[in-house]
Amino acid sequence: QVQLVQSGAEVKKPGASVKVSCKASGYTFTNYYMHWVRQAPGQGLEWMGRINSNSGDTNSAQKFQGRVTMTRDTSISTAYMELSRLRSDDTAVYYCAREVDRDSSGYPGRWFDPWGQGTLVTVSS
Amino acid sequence: DIQMTQSPSSLSASVGDRVTITCRASQSISSYLNWYQQKPGNAPKLLIYAASSLQSGVPSRFSGSGSGTDFTLNISSLQPEDFATYYCQQSYSTPRTFGQGTKVEIK
Q1: What pLDDT is attached to residue A105?
Q2: Distance (Å, rounded) from C-alpha A37 to C-alpha A70?
Q3: Is the predicted pLDDT of residue B26 greater than 90, yes or no?
Q4: Residues with Cβ < 8 Å from B4, sequence gap 6 or more?
Q5: A29 phi and psi angles, rounded to 5 deg
Q6: Which one, of B78, B66, B67, lies nearest residue B19 by Cα?
């Protein structure tokens, strides 16, 4: 089955960087964009950016530009999200999510399915 | 950026009730609107895609409607497992944006 498995929880100090991985299985990795979404404690969902898993091209939310780097390794079907210059308000659960652009009947659209299980990143001195 | 506004932010309902959640986009997004359900400690789960298509495996009591700027998620008869937070999301353009969420609680 299609599955995204993320790396484990991290604790980082302010100013450090964190790199979260997202290993895909059950589908052709390079056929889909991978997106990154985060959720601060008790808050809603915030889109961070996406990577074209084939070309490696990326787009990120303006808020994170200059701090977020998204990469992928197609040989192991894994996407990565690195966030630098961490602050306490970066404490959040970080999710990867595959974006599908048509269903099994060919009906078009764009939606996130599945999501990874989430990676808690805690930033604390 | 396209702003997504959900209402209400929270609601209390009983098992068996019909529940309606609305989502409004700041500009037309055609049918590029998705709904997700999230339970505490879990990742979001896709319920409805392209405004009105039911994701495989999702109970038929969930339905979505709308196009353009106004969308609705309906739960025809609320079940105990439906108490959760629901998010709408537009996929018309980047940045992808989410509504602020609607928490459905037990009355």
Answers
A1: 87
A2: 12
A3: yes
A4: B23, B24, B25, B26, B88, B89, B90, B97, B98, B99, B100
A5: -55, -40
A6: B78
- For the record, the structure tokens of A57 come out as 């091209």
Q: CA-nearest residue of chain B to A115?
A: B43
Span B38-82, pLDDT tens digits: 999 999 999 999 999 999 999 999 999 999 999 999 999 999 999
Paired tokens of B1: 């950026």
Inter-chain residue contact B50 with A111, CB threshold 8 Å = yes
For B50, the closest of A47, A109, A112 (CB atoms) is A109
Give the one of A59, A104, A117 whose C-beta lies nearest to B94's C-beta: A59
Q: Residue ranges of the alpha helices (H) in chain B?
A: none
